[in-house]
Amino acid sequence: MVNSPRPQGDRCPALDRRPRPTDTWGPPAVHLRVGRSPPAAPTVDVVSPTAPRVIAVVVTHRRPGLLAQGLAALAAQDRRPDHLVVVDNADDPHTRDVVEECDLPLTYLPSATNLGGAGGFAYGVLTARALGADLVWMADDDGRPATTSTLTRLLRAAADEDLEVVAPLVLDVDDPSRLAFGLRLGTRRAAVRTDLPGTGVVHGVANPFNGMLLTTRALDAVGVPDPRLVVRGDEVELHRRLVRSGLPFGTCLDATWLHPSGTRDVVPLLGGSVPVYVPADPERARVAYRNLGWLTSQPGMRWRRWPDEARYAWYHLVVRRDPEAWREWRERSAAGRREQFVS
């Protein structure tokens, strides 16, 4: 059945309560699960016909164990997503088995090409839009909601604060007293839970992809992640677009998300006050440096070029005493600023 078009208006879809036809749709035939009948219409008791339609988008690549944990946590929400889109960047049979066990209405998108995280999210988000999403809930395969009320609290924060984008607080899965990525608060960076208030919303800052909930109005304004930014930079670039859009967004401190620490490849300089990103894998480093160089050529990010020059010069020349690595960083960064994404 084709979804009836929604009336257009200026009201934030997260707050839209206009009546809509009862939901009886399923995934298009091209995406039906092999060997199974089409899923029945969603019958989530807590979702009324007038509630916004939330579609979760998960991108995965050969991590079926972690994916199983994440999908179970999504399905256990007290306000469950109305539909799930899983982008499998490896077309992996073990991943397919995990997806088939999830009892949410779903669309499985196996890809013969590894699209990367950004490309996978672009594919998944556009599919969610085509399926009639009012809000898109994004997740990597190695993260998951920390509680059963994460989505409920995100929706409540969006309604109470009139936010177009709201993200949960992302905690280190191995030590939930610490933040997985940190959170920028003006001139300082929160690293532990106690650096933040116990409740409320921190406006103007968010960790993209990790449980972030976006309205369709926000997606119209910022678009989908740039598939060229594999390895590193896609989340920074999406945040850049979000800031420049002028739309209200923030992090809900009452909604939490679990994710492995993102500090693995971050080297602290000057007592930890200046972080520098240095992937251990040389090829990942080359791609990351190119992407970060491209970012410093974009509106809203150009101010970062010279601080980046200074911190990477200090790391390679003073800390590592490796002028060859410094020259390579400069070459890759310059290639990014010239938008030369072909290696």
From TrEMBL:
Residues 1-27 are annotated as: Disordered. The lineage of its organism: Bacteria, Bacillati, Actinomycetota, Actinomycetes, Micrococcales. Residues 57-179 form the Glycosyltransferase 2-like domain. Gene3D superfamilies: Spore Coat Polysaccharide Biosynthesis Protein SpsA, Chain A. Pathway: Cell wall biogenesis; cell wall polysaccharide biosynthesis. This is Glycosyltransferase. It holds the Pfam family Glycos_transf_2. Keywords: Glycosyltransferase, Transferase. It comes from the Bacteria. It comes from Phycicoccus sonneratiae. Belongs to the glycosyltransferase 2 family. Signal peptide: none annotated.
